[in-house]
Model the fold of this input.
Amino acid sequence: MLIDGKRFRTIWPAAGGAVEIIDQTRLPHAVAIARLESLEAVVRAIADMQVRGAPLIGVTAAWGLALAMRADPGDGALAEASRQLKASRPTAVNLAWAVDRVVSVLIHLLPADREAVARAEAAAIAEEDVVACRAIGEHGADLIAAIGARKGGEAVNVLTHCNAGWLATVDWGTALAPIYVAQARGIDVHVWVDETRPRNQGAALTAFELGQQGVAHTVIADNAGGHLMQHGRVDLVLTGADRITRTGDAANKIGTYLKALAAADNGVPFHVAAPASTLDWSLTDGVAQIPIEERGGEEVTHVAGALADGSMARVLVSAPGSPAANFAFDVTPARLITGLITERGVCAATEAGLLGLFSER
Ligand code: MRU
Done:
């Protein structure tokens, strides 16, 4: 997608065996490129959220294995690298999925061959993610088009939470891909962007990428969605997911569940967009079984932003000394989800619905 009219992806291989990323902790105030040259740098980039979003942390972890194999291609180093990468963020299953996929290929190889094969596999995972997200965009745009047709061409108002755009993937995004495809088809779309406290991925990242693409949007406080739905100002809620059980429960950024409750109460369709790498076929009960990441309380007590002179500052917003809890994700039960948008099409958020698209499971 575009930044200042120039095509970008979120991650790419760089000279000297390194990998480069857009440092998302600096957006929207600066477009900074960070160079990752070691496993340790990759683990830090994922944990500190220089890269974030379920598909992107999976791809980054795959590159992390390639960097680990460059330093030491032995069995012990491979096992330790995959342990560290999987522990860096627990909720998005894409990360463990990508690590397991690369390890399953490397384990049968001689150590001398592992770095090159890991690089090829990481590149393949990245390319497949782009293709999957593009397909999600096409399927989701059909839903937006149908709503647009019912409204006689009036703007379709989509509410989204967190950032499930191209910055959360390699390109295109999941929840935002349908919006980009709809825009390309000439459909009038406007996006309500939840700010997404505590880290403000909506206000900082979603608003940035929609602005760069020229999509009409409005940033709203996280608590405004229910009010807008009561007044008929939301036609569709579209979110991404970090892990979806085989029964259709979906973990996503904290606060998604509340949006789903408000959508159900107001008869607003609530769709979750995600590629197959986000499906966890081993789980049947999202609330009981999906591990929820808890991050440091300072992300709740403090807010980061740019001062008038462009410098970055971090300010305390809560009462000094008050403890804070920081649950990073919640689970939306399948019964509140109107449909899942995958690269293979749209299905009901049920085991039968998913198996209809993924019959090999
Ligand atoms: O904590 P983050 O920013 O990694 O959380 C990201 C989300 O919750 C996204 O909605 C999800 O990963 C889907 S990304 C296409």
About this structure: The CA atoms of residues 146 and 311 lie 45 Å apart. The domain at 135-293+327-357 is CATH 3.40.50.10470 (Rossmann fold).
